[in-house]
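Hey there, shall we discuss this one?
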Amino acid sequence: MKKILDAVKQTGADAVHPGYGFLSENTNFVAELEKAGITFIGPNSKAISQMGDKIASKILAKDAKVNTIPGTKMCSKNRTQMPLILSLFCRV
């Protein structure tokens, strides 16, 4: 990631398209670009962070009136107990 950021600065690029893969979903990478004033062609770092958290993204979608698949409300209210909840309902 550091080498890519260095290359962007050295070449004077004003935007970065991450392609597909880990950089396209890397909040830190996007935040570094934002801090340097470089346009990231994709969602901003806050959106990536929210979409990476499945519970937060479902709450965000519901707040935006997007239809979602029904699920347990217990998870969104008891985030600190998530490992216990998963151990009760999911076999690993």
About this structure: The chain has six helices and two strands. The longest helix spans residues 2-11.
